[in-house]
Amino acid sequence: MRRKARLSAEERRALLEDAACACIARGGIRDFTVDKVVAEAGVSRGLITHHFGSMDGLLVAVYTRMYRDWLAVMEEPRPGLSRIEAMVEALVSPALFDREVVNIWLTLWGEIANNPVLRDTHRALYGDYRAAIMTALEEAAQANGREIDAETVATAFICLVDGFGVQRCVEPALLSEEKARAACWAFLRPHIGDQVGAAR
Predict the structure, then answer these.
(1) Using 50, 70 and 90 to split pLDDT, how confident is the model at 194?
(2) N or C: which end of the chain has fewer CB within 10 A?
């Protein structure tokens, strides 16, 4: 009988992160336990300590991956669209607001208040997220001859998008992709000009 191929350290880490995401999506933080994660991954308990140091380390790894995936979708080039238009399309897309993805985000956000390690990670990643949106806003405003307080507008815009996640989790039928897109542009156009996103 042929032996199964040995996974690399990177593959084992990814396997555990996938398992942790599946557990959190299914049952929130109460299902984020050593026993449930290793059962989901089909590995031994010691691998969590070996690769992440602790369950907190695994939680930070999951949060970091979620943010990196989020930023990757947001910053993906979309031919024919400005940077802010591409971001709006990403931020209202099913890829970022899948029900399981939203469940993971809400669980992680809930843990930030009680977990100082996760809170520190959030602050760094949130800074990257806000900076990306600020850059897109500044570009759009400049193209339309507008001045903008990019930090304030970006912060408010993020709050709007975060609200989409909550709405799609608790009552998804009330917020279609089209309604979310319209809400984004209703908020943004007074700040960056009516020409941006006019055809959407």
Answers:
(1) confident
(2) N
How far is it, in rounded angstroms, from Cα 78 to Cα 76?
6
The C-alpha angle 112, 116, 121, rounded to 5 degrees, equals 70
42 torsion bin: left (phi>0), alpha (psi -120 to 50), beta (else)? left
Residues 6+ apart with CB under 8 A from 162: none
Task: Quick: pLDDT tens for 49-89.
Answer: 999 999 999 999 999 999 998 888 888 888 888 999 999 99
Spatial contact of 172 and 102, defined as CB atoms under 8 Å apart: no
Q: What is the dihedral of CA 156, 160, 166, 170, to 10 degrees?
A: 140
Q: Report yes or no: 86 and 77 within 8 Å, Cβ to Cβ.
A: yes
User: Structure tokens of 50?
Assistant: 């070996």
- Count the neighbouring beta carbons within 10 Å of the beta carbon of residue 122: 20
Q: Domains (ranges, CATH) in the chain? A: 60-192 (1.10.357.10)
